[in-house]
Specification:
single chain, 91 residues, mainly alpha, 3 helices, flat
């Protein structure tokens, strides 16, 4: 691997780290807003999903994998959303 490729990867990892740190700060800041329970859970799940997506895409290298792996990840996310929607809709 050449030096400029290594610097490119390091820059990406540092950017992802900064995004994860920013999302963590946002999570803490949102906790001080004292939102209603349903809204707080929804916001927390959205932020957690963004953070999990960043980790999966960049640190697990799913962003450079074949489309089948991304399709499986998307399918898992759809099933997770359906499972999370069941208690909300039944309430």
């Amino acid at each position: 691997m050449e030096e400029h490729e290594i610097k490119k990867h390091v820059r990406i990892y540092v950017s992802v780290f900064a995004a994860l740190a920013a999302l963590t700060v946002i999570t803490v800041a949102v906790s001080y807003l004292h939102l209603p329970m349903k809204q707080a859970i929804a916001v927390a799940l959205i932020i957690a999903s963004l953070k999990a997506s960043l980790v999966a895409l960049f640190f697990m290298h799913l962003i450079s994998e074949k489309q089948v792996i991304l399709a499986i990840l998307l399918l898992a996310a759809v099933f997770l959303a359906m499972l999370l929607a069941v208690p909300v809709l039944s309430y």
